[in-house]
Design a protein that fits this description.
- The protein is of the alpha/beta class.
- The chain is built from twelve helices and 15 strands.
- The chain has helices at residues 12-19, 24-32, 47-60, 76-84, 97-101, 123-140, 175-195, 214-224, 240-249, 271-282, 302-308, 315-327; strands at residues 37-40, 67-71, 88-91, 108-111, 145-151, 158-159, 199-204, 207-208, 228-229, 234-235, 238-239, 259-263, 269-270, 288-289, 295-296.
- The strands form five sheets. Strands 3-2-1-4-5-7-12 form a seven-stranded parallel β-sheet, with helices on both faces. It has a two-stranded antiparallel sheet with strand order 6-15.
Length: 346
């Protein structure tokens, strides 16, 4: 069933190495940029990959700067894993402005903190995490360059045939998570204007790897004979290694007013066709529920592709890797993406 030109990934160690492998352009970023890097919200799904990639790129560039990883670290093993690859960890509650003020100075900041899942029933905390934390950080690091992770959820659902929302599409967020995500952007825009802080707003939609993401969600349903929901009939995805590399390459592009950049793969991915492809690889006949709508949450990342090129891991390679991973019962994060949600309630 396996026909990609890249060898399949058979262990967590191989996966972590592949995800965090820095492309030459990332190494070049850290030849040019001097000073330490602070990754805020490092303990999330993507943070360890990005921090490890930055450390590896700095080492290749012979850049002696420090990579700091900042989070609450509710799971001690994440802290240990980061320390083992040369990332200096700092436990910090970013909602506590005094704690944020005590963080070390760093000219380069990647902001990855935020809250999405569990929003329903915890709306106040969601708004605090997605607007108060940015205010604390933007004030403290007003003299740094900051790459701010955001989301394509700030856009409205758009007609599938139009190729996705561009950076010129006016935000129209659906639901409190998406509204608060736009709030995060606006807070950074305010401090960017106030202090002339160079900022890049990085609207990602969506990162995928073998333990997490839309492709895994669909693959698990196909493998177990669970109906695949079609309410959100099309999506965009991007290999997490490419997503992290592009974010790091945004550091020298940060500006005032902020650079706004959509980040995703070039394909409009049909969920139905994705399920059929996974079924072909797995020897399973997919089941479906619902029907495709004429609109979907889609982003056009043409601007990013002109800056950074085509993703280094093509879509079908990721699909084949995920199919193999699921068939071998290899570990996952057990965190469904809820990609099918259309009302913004996560």
């Amino acid at each position: 069933m396996y026909n990609t030109t890249e060898p399949y990934i058979t262990s967590l160690a191989e996966l972590e190495e592949r995800l965090s492998r820095p492309m030459p352009e990332v190494v070049q970023v850290f030849r040019q940029l001097q000073g330490d890097l602070l990754v805020l919200g490092v303990a999330g799904k993507m943070g360890p990959t990005l921090a490890r990639m930055a450390r590896r790129a700095m080492d290749e560039a012979q850049n002696p700067a420090v990579v700091y990883g900042v989070a609450r670290f509710s799971q001690a093993e994440v802290c240990e894993q980061l320390e083992n690859v040369g990332v200096q960890t700092i436990a910090c509650d970013l909602l506590d402005a005094d704690s944020v003020r005590r963080l070390p100075d760093a000219p380069n900041v990647v902001f990855m903190a935020g809250m999405k899942f569990g929003t329903t029933g915890a709306e106040a905390l969601t708004w605090a995490m997605n607007t108060v934390v940015p205010a604390n950080v933007a004030e403290r690091f007003r003299r740094s360059r900051i790459v701010v992770f955001s989301t394509g959820n700030v856009y409205p659902l758009v007609p599938v045939v139009q190729g996705g929302a561009t950076e010129a599409t006016l935000p129209a967020p659906i639901g409190e998570y998406a509204q608060s995500a736009l709030g995060r952007e606006r807070v950074f825009e305010y401090f960017c204007a106030r202090y002339h802080t160079p900022v890049a707003i990085y609207r990602l939609n969506y990162a995928v790897e073998l333990r997490y993401g839309i492709i895994l969600d669909v693959a698990q349903k196909v493998w177990t004979g669970t109906p695949v929901p079609l309410a959100m009939g099309c999506v965009n995805v991007l290999w997490q290694g490419d997503a992290c590399a592009w974010a790091l390459r945004c550091l020298p592009l940060a500006q005032s007013p902020p650079l706004v950049l959509n980040a995703t793969g070039p394909e409009t991915v049909s969920i139905r066709q994705l399920a059929y492809r996974l079924g072909e690889l797995m020897g399973k006949e997919p089941l479906f529920e619902g029907t495709e709508a004429d609109t979907a949450l889609l982003s056009n990342a043409g601007k990013a592709h002109r800056l950074f090129g085509y993703p280094t891991v093509p879509l079908d390679t990721v699909v084949q890797w995920v199919a193999y991973w699921v068939m071998q019962s290899l570990p996952t994060l057990d965190k469904p993406t809820h990609f099918e949600v259309r009302n913004g309630r996560f």
